[in-house]
UniProtKB/TrEMBL annotation:
Pfam families to which the protein is assigned, alphabetical: DUF1822
Organism (species): Brasilonema octagenarum UFV-OR1
Name under which the protein is recorded: DUF1822 family protein
Length: 392
């Protein structure tokens, strides 16, 4: 069955207008300051206003499970280099493309939101932000399939463009189409991007992390740029370097001085565990072991990923441990805890699988003297997961 959206567009051409609360404008501006230039601060401001105004409406009207993607904490690293805001609901995604333009003659979607596989969405929504009137106007949307088939590609700006007259102006049609024709193809297959080596990534970060480079997204071939951005850990480093920030993901520094404020936004914290050990004269002493904790949600259930040095921190032996957030519950069989190198490569002994329900899953890894980065993964994938590089 094919759903003819154009027949409904003619009789349902009402745009969606949503009011921006006055307090939200002030709050969004205050939260949009940590960027490398006034232009990027403004881009972040428009995106934050759009997200914070549109997302509650979507949750109330159509999709209670709607949430920012890849995750809200990752948005600054995206807005530093690309315009657009992702929202996921169920198994679908949409991307808001905000603009201040009064007369929208076309929708311009940055290539990143189309050709990076983990970013590619089903729907792209044109959002006009009117700060004087204190509102946003959703002036139309298109699917990824329509954007690719009917739009044009602007190589100079690396954007897919679709004339405004080809947009579906009534957003309600999107939800009607999903009900009437759930098998409609909204997203075509996206080709995978190449894998970057650590050396390649370091060279790119050194070059593109210079805030004097105004448009880093146009400074290298898209395949290379897309591969760098798709890796959440490298994209975070790019953002941090363009702000002139000190490294935020050093585990040794976390152990000695506490988890960085930046990492706390991603869910990391610390707890102190008491461990008994035999003293030199046979007495039992209490040692405080600094333990980093990342709280996770997997299939609706809470879990904890714990990270702890084994023995003296100078030994550089670390234990990654997954536990159920409920002490009375176990980790289900089939769960996998996995560690990868910074460039997402496996190594000997890098994963453990629960063949039966377990109280905990853990991996102990001994690292060398030079700095190394590790990326953790869990199967099934936790909600809002993105690659994080932990440096040791």
């Amino acid at each position: 069955m094919t759903f003819n959206q154009s027949t409904l567009t003619l009789t349902n051409s009402t745009d969606l207008w949503l009011e921006i609360p006055e307090t939200e404008q002030t709050k969004a501006w205050e939260q949009s300051q940590a960027f490398s230039s006034s232009n990027r601060r403004w881009i972040a401001y428009l995106n934050r206003l759009s997200l914070n105004t549109f997302l509650p409406w979507v949750r109330d009207e159509y999709a209670p499970d709607a949430t920012a993607f890849p995750k809200a904490a990752a948005n600054p690293s995206i807005w530093e280099v690309v315009n657009g805001t992702g929202i996921s609901f169920g198994t679908s995604r949409m991307v808001l493309i905000p603009t201040e333009a009064v007369d929208l003659d076309e929708l311009r979607v940055p290539q990143e939101w189309v050709d990076i596989p983990s970013w590619s969405a089903d729907y792209y929504v044109a959002v006009q932000v009117n700060l004087e009137e204190g509102c946003i106007r959703v002036s139309g949307y298109t699917t990824q399939a329509q954007l690719k088939n009917m739009g044009t590609y602007d190589a100079g700006d690396r954007a897919y463009c679709l004339d405004a007259e080809n947009l579906i102006s009534n957003l309600n049609i999107l939800w009607m189409a999903r009900q009437i024709c759930p098998e409609e193809v909204t997203r075509t297959e996206t080709a995978p991007l190449p894998t970057l080596s650590v050396t390649q990534a370091e060279n790119l970060l050194k070059r593109l992390g210079n805030s004097a480079l105004i448009l880093p997204r146009l400074a290298v071939p898209f395949q290379t740029w897309g591969a760098l951005l798709e890796h959440g850990g490298w994209r975070q480093r790019l953002y941090e370097q363009r702000q002139g920030m000190q490294p935020q993901w050093s585990i040794r520094e976390w152990v000695q001085g506490g988890v960085s404020d930046f990492a706390q936004k991603f869910g990391w914290g610390s707890i102190e565990l008491q461990s008994s050990f035999q003293g030199s004269r046979g007495s039992v002493q209490e040692a405080e072991l600094p333990t980093m904790v990342r709280r996770l949600t997997i299939d609706g259930q809470g879990y904890e990923l714990r990270l702890q040095p084994k023995g003296n921190i100078e030994n550089n032996i670390w234990r990654f441990e997954l536990r159920n957030g409920n002490r009375d519950e176990r980790i289900p069989s089939g769960f996998i805890l996995k560690l990868l190198t910074e460039d997402l490569q496996p190594f000997d002994g890098n994963q453990v699988k629960a063949t039966t329900p377990k109280e905990r899953l853990y991996i102990e890894v001994a690292l060398g003297e030079s700095r190394e980065g590790l990326v953790w993964q869990i199967e099934p994938t936790p909600e809002d997961y993105e690659s994080e590089i932990l440096y040791f």
